[in-house]
Write a structure and sequence with these properties.
Layout (H helix, E strand, L loop, with lengths): L1 H17 L2 E4 L1 H7 L2 H37 L5 H55 L3 E4 L14 H8 L6
Parallel strand pairs: 1-2
Length: 166
């Protein structure tokens, strides 16, 4: 029994001695990447395009409603029903567009951010391997304590050739 306890203690200490854990503030690094400004500009432009499409749909809707209201007394019931169906179709399209536009923006953001995350991940991997870290934790995700001497954020910024924003 004593031999098993001693063996377990030895294996535990050996495993602990081989683990080197670092931390990195990936959000801080992303915010400091010059490419982020391009991503933000592209997302704003795309949002503006969606907004223009929405305004065009709203204008078309308003035109159809105004037209319908002006013709209500002079057209047949069948024509009224047809115009009401068109107006309701436009209303449904507007509602779908509202629902989908936020998802479309999120999809575009994800597409544009993916290369930045890949670049950051590659830099973190390179620094972790170079400095002999077996694990790197991202700050801001529930890390209760970290030793600042184990923070590789600046080393990753150097690897990316970016200046961290203050």
């Amino acid at each position: 029994m004593k031999t098993i306890t001693t063996l377990f203690l030895f294996v535990s200490l050996a495993a602990f001695a081989q683990t080197k854990v670092g931390t990195v503030d990936s959000d801080y690094l992303l915010a400091s990447m010059p490419e982020l400004k391009e991503v933000q500009t592209s997302i704003e432009t795309y949002g503006g395009e969606l907004d223009s499409q929405f305004k065009e749909m709203a204008t078309n809707y308003q035109t159809k409603v105004t037209e319908f209201q002006s013709l209500t007394d002079t057209i047949s019931d069948a024509d009224k029903k047809g115009k009401q169906d068109v107006i309701m179709g436009i209303e449904q399209d507007i509602q779908k567009f509202r629902q989908n536009s936020q998802q479309l923006i999120q999809i575009r953001r994800d597409e544009l951010m993916r290369p930045l995350y890949t670049k950051l991940g590659t830099a973190i991997d390179a620094v972790a391997k170079q400095k002999g870290y077996t694990q790197v934790l991202t700050l801001g995700n529930g890390v209760a304590y970290f030793d600042p001497s184990q923070d590789i954020t600046q080393a990753v910024a150097d690897n990316l050739k970016i200046t961290l924003k203050q």
